[in-house]
Design brief:
Layout: H1 5-10, H2 15-23, H3 32-48, H4 53-89, H5 93-141, H6 145-151, H7 158-197, H8 199-219, H9 223-246, H10 248-254, H11 257-309, H12 315-332, H13 334-363, H14 365-370, E1 387-391, E2 399-409, E3 416-426, E4 431-434, H15 441-449, E5 455-462, E6 475-478, E7 487-488, H16 489-494, H17 499-505, H18 523-532, E8 563-564, H19 566-569, H20 572-586, E9 590-594, H21 602-614, E10 618-622, E11 634-640, E12 651-657
Helix pairs in contact: 2-9, 3-4, 3-13, 4-5, 4-7, 4-12, 5-7, 6-13, 7-8, 7-12, 7-13, 8-11, 8-12, 8-13, 9-11, 9-13, 11-12, 18-20
Bound molecules: adenosine-5'-triphosphate.
The site of adenosine-5'-triphosphate has 15 residues, from helix 15.
Family: Belongs to the ABC transporter superfamily. ABCD family. Peroxisomal fatty acyl CoA transporter (TC 3.A.1.203) subfamily.
Pfam families: ABC_membrane_2, ABC_tran
Keywords: ATP-binding, Membrane, Nucleotide-binding, Transmembrane, Transmembrane helix, Transport
Length: about 650
Amino acid sequence: MPLDTKEIVSDAQTPEKNLLSINSREGASTDLSVIWSRLIKLGMPYWSDPVEGGGARWKLAGVVALTLGTTGVSVLFNFLGRDFFNALSEKDAERFTQMLIKWLGGVVLGVPVFVFRDYVQSKLALDWRDYMTRRLTEDYFRNRTFYQIQSGSLIDNPDQRISSDVRQFTDTALGFSMTILNAGVDLISFSGILYSIYPPLFVALLIYSIGGTGVSIFLGRKLVGLNFQQEAQEANFRFGLVRVRENAESIAFYGGEESEAKLLFQRLGAVVANYGDLLVTSRNLSFFTSFYRFLIQILPAAVVAPLFFRGEIEFGVINQSSSAFNHILSDVSLVVYQFEALAGFSAIIDRLGEFTEVVDNFASPESEEDGLPGSVSSGGVDTSKIDLVDWPSNANSSPLLSLENLTLRTPNGVRTLVQDLTMQVNKGESLLIVGPSGTGKTSLLRAIAGLWSSGSGRITRYGKPIAADGTGGDILFVPQRPYMVLGTLREQLLYPTWSTVSAHSAGMGNGAKPASSRPIPSDAELEEALRQVRLDALLSRASPSSSGNSSNGSGAAIGLECMADWAGILSLGEQQRLAFARILLLKPKLVLMDEATSALDIDNEELLYRAIADAGVTFVSVGHRPTLSEFHSRVLRLNPTPGSVDVEQGTTWEVQTIA
Ligand SMILES: Nc1ncnc2c1ncn2[C@@H]1O[C@H](COP(=O)(O)OP(=O)(O)OP(=O)(O)O)[C@@H](O)[C@H]1O
């Protein structure tokens, strides 16, 4: 199987993997202590962050103050309402006018408090989301976690968790916290009012609300699991549509529309079926909550009416007690009113908690030291790790790569692909890796790149691949389908070595430092690299007019600034030539290529190999084509074990010098 970065970068999960993950995960965690500890773990870092936490806490204090202000405004209106209705019932026109003016004054002062509370709260939720998404995304890329999650089918739809789950988490967490705070303060203020009016009314209310909460928990208990499933099924359906877009041409060539539609309908069916169950459960809950809401409209009046008939209270007090009753009831009945939202929230906590646990597992320094986690550690499966060592590169040093007693297994540790391989790649001694399909050629490159670590022995790399901090660049890996970034022709050429530089220079950077300490190639060097791989014709192509980024004043950018969907418009052969242009610009000491010329004609293949050899680059190639051997000095042959029926039963290896 060739290394395919397009798949790695753009495909979050294959459909089968998604189904696997979801089937293996029946529903949300209903264990309250697990949900609570995940909530704390997800929520705390922002507020305790040494840099952003201080500002966040001040903003939170502002939201709390405004929330308390809203309760103050409500209490004010409770009393204004009482006096207003008293003036009305006593037919006191002068007092009524006074009350009207006071009421209007209260509205003018009170409305900004409510509006600003909502605004500041939403803005704080947005800042929190920004922080949390950045952290999760950094962890997602650390130690190539995104690759491990994808290749190991560890969790479904990480993209959905990072984007929409985080947004919902921050919005809801802040919203609920403020609702609970509001409810607490409201409860204290209005309990006093209600108790002072008529203590039995207060007792009736307590019984009513506690009973209501219990019944709604019972009726809505299935909602947590159903909400969890709904998120997952929606993401699966959307993912199916994304796959159709990404593989439009292949599907059209195969005439696979019908089977794709069938697959999508299956997923849509799962979305609809689960939503149907969700609707039934919410309908049953709604029956109860609606009765509950309607009843409270007359309940307080019914309880205090005898006092009014006996002349013990004024008419306005009925209105005041109704208003106080409603406030307290909605405070103590939070669970009843918000049950669906709470169920959805706990499903989100569950999904995000699960995601951060997987990501933390890979992102922790121990996992870096121990090799990549994820191996099955039970059932007698060997979980030993390959030792991957980087030696500083030395311009004069001859070895570039050395493999010592390398045994390579698939990530689950079940299959052994290569056994006890010892060899060295020296400067100028290029190596071709051949063997039947499935013997482990690409996997060997994965191990050298550090993507797979299951096995034993040692790999020493003399030099470093490009690292996130811009160091390295002595070693470059080139997959069969090179990754095309979204951007200009210049950005294609500069990827990955100077990718931050190009984003920066194009005005997209946010002040980030250039990624590489190597000098950025000039326009002339970029154009020369294109000429060497016979892609200079691309320089005269113009961006589609909608892409903007004009450099010639006519609205369409041309040359290196041409912006296009490069993965969509370049043929695979052209993409492979572009990958060679990147090699010529970077001039690494060693390049490891996986069927990197598979889509090229023999003439172009020769041109590219000669160009990188002339540039002093040593290369290791994986390939099937016999023509490749003339560009390499040695060949590593992986063979199925003699006597075995197929490669599943293990391989042997031999190294030969090419005459
Ligand atoms: N994530 C994975 N988990 C388990 N096994 C895997 C995984 N990825 C690949 N394999 C298996 O490992 C074996 C070696 O795969 P690899 O892609 O290295 O073969 P290859 O020699 O490059 O094949 P080809 O010439 O067809 O590209 C295959 O049998 C493949 O099915």
